[in-house]
From TrEMBL:
<dbReference type="GO" id="GO:0008696">
    <property type="term" value="F:4-amino-4-deoxychorismate lyase activity"/>
</dbReference>
<dbReference type="GO" id="GO:0046394">
    <property type="term" value="P:carboxylic acid biosynthetic process"/>
</dbReference>
<dbReference type="InterPro" id="IPR001544">
    <property type="entry name" value="Aminotrans_IV"/>
</dbReference>
<dbReference type="InterPro" id="IPR043132">
    <property type="entry name" value="BCAT-like_C"/>
</dbReference>
<dbReference type="InterPro" id="IPR050571">
    <property type="entry name" value="Class-IV_PLP-Dep_Aminotrnsfr"/>
</dbReference>
<dbReference type="Pfam" id="PF01063">
    <property type="entry name" value="Aminotran_4"/>
</dbReference>
<dbReference type="InterPro" id="IPR043131">
    <property type="entry name" value="BCAT-like_N"/>
</dbReference>
<dbReference type="InterPro" id="IPR036038">
    <property type="entry name" value="Aminotransferase-like"/>
</dbReference>
<dbReference type="GO" id="GO:0005829">
    <property type="term" value="C:cytosol"/>
</dbReference>
<comment type="similarity">
    <text>Belongs to the class-IV pyridoxal-phosphate-dependent aminotransferase family.</text>
</comment>
<keyword id="KW-0456">Lyase</keyword>
<protein>
    <submittedName>
        <fullName>Aminodeoxychorismate lyase</fullName>
        <ecNumber>4.1.3.38</ecNumber>
    </submittedName>
</protein>
């Protein structure tokens, strides 16, 4: 059993259902050359992706991740992906990864080669980094100005703010800035003072009995982990709301988490140099749910 899997995928049009998707997958060794240097994904970050957690052989939230891939394709004018083909590719990758432990499956749809007839697509499965210490003991975060107001997505849809594109250079720069400021991670705030998201995560906070997250109205990525956690909390009778959140509210929250598919719920124990209350039992309950098989 290998600990990594790489598949090159010939993307099928969305409406094709008479071709066996398995015939469109080509397994390659992770170190083998597989992409052309003219790829627009590497040249311009022009493409979209999803990262799906695999926990003990179960791929989490495949449906919501594929729906978001479809939404990202729409926003970026890429051809609509064939979701059944992607579902089968993920299934095949999971079958090749070990049945125990935490793994990641990253699926990528790139605009392809300049002038090329189709997008290019691939999948990588690999062991996830060990996030147990961060889940248990928390991280320090700083708020960083994102440089636009929270209505920017409507005015400037070409910023692609609601799509999960490959262009993460800005997000990585924010993480480096957070480290320069002595923190582990960042929380973006709009120039007019609203909480947005982390560079690779959604922001969740609790004030009193209300768990809240910024509403994803085009200016941030709708988080699959946050949505799954919120529906679980609502089912359990808690108040979990998606709404506008001012930066001042975050500063006086009773708890703050960064949540994402692979890291799961990581408590923020220090924000902008000030301690944030941290409930170990509540965080452990969030992560027990997030580690359970979810579709
Ligand atoms: N926001 C951004 C910018 C992200 O990169 C991510 C995940 O990588 C998220 C939010 C959280 O999304 P998800 O919970 O679907 O992993």
């Amino acid at each position: 059993m290998s600990h990594t899997v790489t598949l090159l995928i010939e993307p099928l049009p969305a409406d094709v259902d008479d071709i066996d998707p398995d015939s469109t997958f080509h397994a390659v060794a992770p170190s083998a050359p597989a992409l052309r240097v003219a790829e627009l994904s590497t040249q311009r970050g022009d493409g979209i992706f999803e990262t799906i957690a695999v926990v003990d052989g179960h791929a989490q939230e495949v449906g919501p991740h594929l729906e978001r891939l479809r939404a990202s394709a729409r926003i970026t004018d890429l051809p609509e992906p064939n979701l059944e083909q992607w579902r089968r590719a993920i299934h095949r990758a999971v079958g090749e990864l070990p049945a125990q432990g935490e793994y990641s499956v990253k699926i990528v749809l790139s605009r392809g080669i300049e002038g090329g007839p189709t997008p290019t697509a691939w999948l990588m499965g690999f062991p996830s980094a060990d996030h147990r210490a961060a889940r248990e003991h928390g991280i320090r975060a700083v708020t960083l100005d994102r440089g636009y107001d929270h209505g920017a997505a409507e005015r400037a849809p070409w910023l692609l703010l609601g799509a999960k594109t490959l262009s993460y250079a800005v997000n990585m720069a924010a993480l480096r800035e957070a480290k320069r400021r002595g923190a582990d991670d960042a929380i973006f705030v709009s120039s007019d003072g609203y909480v947005l998201e982390g560079p690779t995560s959604s922001v969740v906070m609790r004030i009193g009995d209300e768990v809240a997250t910024p509403a994803a109205t085009g200016q941030i990525l709708p988080g699959t982990t946050q949505r799954s956690l919120f529906s679980h909390l609502v089912d359990a009778g808690s108040t979990a709301t998606e709404r506008d959140i001012r930066a001042e509210e975050l500063a006086r929250a009773d708890a703050v988490w960064l949540v994402s598919s692979v890291r799961l719920a990581v408590p923020v124990v220090e924000l902008d140099g000030r301690p944030v209350p941290f409930d170990a039992a509540e965080t452990a309950a969030f992560n027990a749910y997030l580690l359970s098989p979810r579709d």
